[in-house]
Design brief:
This protein is an alpha/beta fold and 645 residues long. Helices cover 38% and strands 18% of the residues. It has 25 helices and 22 strands. Strands 14-13-10-11-12-15-16 form a seven-stranded antiparallel sheet, sandwiched between helices. A hairpin with a 6-residue loop joins strand 13 and strand 14. Helix 1 crosses helix 12 and helix 19 packs antiparallel against helix 20.
Length: 645
């Protein structure tokens, strides 16, 4: 397709995110790499400020000029003058870059120096983050948002708080994701949290607003061009309810528990919001949804690339970062997108049966925190993405990816020990969000606590509780057999539900190797599914499945292969420095005439595998999963030094 790219953007400054930290993860490098490639293809000269190993690897390869300096306003202004920058891109470096865009527009006269924000205007940032005219715009379009007010002192917060019932939410403006976002249940907490939020806010402002804790949290990824055309890319749902930071929650796409008619409402509302704020490019919209009253409330609008966009890319095969950059350069959606949409106006996946999950990783053990719980502050140090055809399959893949000792939900010593917890302790674990709450839900089901009661205690949709019960029922059925008389259909059902050989072996008091031999004798082996790009049909990644819906093997590689074991998940002490080495090593292998096959459940390597003839398996790094892929791909060797422990 011909693209109308505005050629006035000759020299673009891309603002990176700076250091990877909790609340601002590797999705920023992921987006930055795409932005660099897209800008260069459009004929722009690119200058990069701030980067990490993955982003710097791409910048070095493309011979992009990099400034290794702090990401602060004074440095940005110096670079603009020194490099004669005419455009600045701020939507791909997390909240850090977005803040710079706001400060830059506040402190520069773009009419005088000719430099402008390319993707997000100062007006949009002000309206969304400072809530300037925010409520008025939404009310004019019959959209509901939490009642609230921006304050600059604890006294002002208390005065406003008297007008609303508790609990109240405090949000520190322009702070990193989750910082300064707290739920106050009385005036003492309100004063304390506002004071804390003011200290964290770069602009010394805090918004106090009504709380919708306990409602379902729904996310929408949307694209819009300068002509007002909008494409709704994905409707996703968080497993945890509002009140837990979305980065601390499992995120699932498509939204499995939201009825089609309600999804249509989210699509229509998202279109109105994109139009109301005149957003050009990509935005992440977060809603609170009451499945009983069907009421919908807009919580947040993030006019930038977020971690949720990575999951939407995986689902649809559409590069959101690339499309957003092209829209910022002046292209139109009709020129860029030639894909089908369903009757609701939602982008159609090439395999509607696929389900994807983003599962967070926590490192509380590194700090010896007793009874850790999840809340409004971002705590996850990283995460993994899994793909499959049932909730059980992707859930158990996710747990294996996080190196769960039981290779899934249950069947491990720590889980068995929970069988002895008291009823009061169990209820507390169900009520208070925590990294191991799914295991306590499993324990509650074993104790025959009714599903509606568990759903009420956890505020997790009852359908998901029922899916965990299905896994528990499969465990019970397997336990009635021994390895010698286990029926083929029962073993096939367990594998389709994501059970690892080790889990099944523990239930049958035998080894994983014995279960592996048994299933292979039954002809139960995983198949490869290839996910392709929505537009180019280029291969994006592969995954394996036992589901009949995905039981097909496609496109084997004809040349000799070397298998690379990537990182399992990012945590403290297991960072992203290995990614650059992994990609360089894979390229070195391809230069020698081999095909490079990479296994990792991380999303961040997907982008770098594109455009580079690397094959990426989106799979856990356990012995069983790796051996299955070795059997499927038959590599000549395996390299493991670029992964983590």
């Amino acid at each position: 397709m011909n693209e109308t790219i505005n050629n006035v953007h000759n020299k673009v400054l891309l603002i990176g995110a700076g250091p990877i930290m909790i609340g601002q993860g590797s999705e920023t490098d992921y987006a930055g790499v795409t932005a660099i490639r897209t800008l260069l293809k459009a004929g722009c000269e690119v200058v990069l400020l701030g980067g990490n190993p993955a982003l710097l690897t791409a910048a070095e390869k493309a011979k992009v000029k990099v400034y290794y300096e702090p990401i602060i306003l004074e440095v940005v202004q110096k670079i603009i003058i020194q490099e004669k920058i005419d455009s600045v891109l701020v939507g791909f470096g997390g909240q850090t870059a977005l803040n710079i865009g706001y400060y830059l527009a506040e402190n520069r006269d773009q009419e005088k120096d000719g430099c402008r924000l390319l993707d997000v205007s100062h007006r949009v940032i002000s309206q969304i983050k400072e809530k300037t005219d925010f409520e008025e715009i939404l009310l004019a379009n019959n959209l509901k948002t939490p009642a609230g007010k921006v304050v600059n002192s604890s006294v002002a917060a208390v005065d406003f708080g008297k007008q609303l019932p508790f609990p109240l939410v405090t949000k520190s403006l322009f702070a990193l994701e989750g910082e300064g976002v707290l739920i106050a249940y009385n005036f003492d907490e309100l004063m304390e949290y506002v004071a804390r939020g003011l200290a964290l806010s770069p602009v010394k402002k805090v918004r106090v607003e009504s709380s919708f804790a306990g409602w379902q949290e729904i996310e929408v990824e949307a694209l819009r061009d300068a002509d007002g055309q909008t494409l709704i890319v994905a409707v996703m749902e968080n497993l945890e309810a509002v009140g837990v930071h979305s980065g601390n929650s499992i995120l699932i796409t498509p939204a499995l528990t939201v009825p089609k008619e309600q999804q249509q409402r989210f699509i229509e509302l998202s279109r109105k919001i994109m139009e109301s704020f005149q957003i050009v490019g990509l935005a992440n919209l977060q809603f609170a949804y009451d499945p009983f009253s069907k009421e919908i409330v807009l919580l947040e609008v993030n006019p930038r690339f977020t971690a949720s966009a990575v999951l939407a890319e995986k689902q649809t095969g559409l590069s959101l970062a690339e499309t957003a950059v092209k829209l910022a350069l002046g292209a139109k959606l009709t020129e860029l997108i030639d894909v089908s949409m369903d009757q609701n106006g939602l982008l159609v996946s090439d395999d509607p049966g696929q389900i994807l999950m983003k599962m967070p990783r926590f490192d509380f053990a590194k700090f010896k925190i007793e009874n850790p719980h999840s809340h409004t502050l971002m705590q996850a140090t990283g995460g993994v993405i899994t793909v499959g055809y049932s909730f059980g399959e992707i859930l158990q893949k996710g747990m294996r990816s996080l190196k769960n000792p039981g290779f899934g939900l249950g069947i491990k010593e720590e889980t068995m020990a929970r069988d002895f917890v008291s009823g009061a302790h169990l209820r507390a674990k169900l009520i208070n969000p925590n990294p191991e709450r799914l295991f306590y839900i499993r324990l509650a089901l074993k104790r025959q606590i009714p599903l509606p009661e568990i759903a009420e205690l956890t505020k997790i949709n009852e359908w998901y509780i029922s899916q965990i019960k299905i896994l528990l029922d499969i465990e019970k059925e397997i336990s009635t057999y021994a390895a010698y008389n286990l029926k083929r259909e029962i073993l096939a059902t367990a594998k389709q539900a994501g059970f690892a050989d080790g889990q099944i072996g523990a239930l049958l008091r035998t080894t994983a190797a014995e279960i592996c031999r048994l299933r292979q004798s039954f002809g139960i082996i995983p198949q490869t599914v290839i996910k392709k790009a929505a537009l180019s049909q280029q291969e994006l990644y592969r995954f394996t499945t036992y589901a009949e819906a995905g039981a097909r093997k496609e496109g084997g590689l004809n040349q000799p292969k070397i298998l690379f074991l990537g990182a399992s998940s990012h945590g403290i002490g297991q960072g992203r420095e290995k990614e650059g080495g992994l990609i360089r090593g894979a390229h070195a292998i391809t230069d020698l005439g081999y095909a490079a096959v990479i296994i990792t459940p991380l999303a961040e390597l997907l982008l770098q595998c594109n455009d580079s003839q690397l094959t990426h398996y989106q799979e856990p790094l356990t012995g069983e999963d790796v051996l299955d892929i070795i059997n499927l791909e038959a590599p000549e060797g395996v390299i493991g030094q670029f992964g983590n422990a």
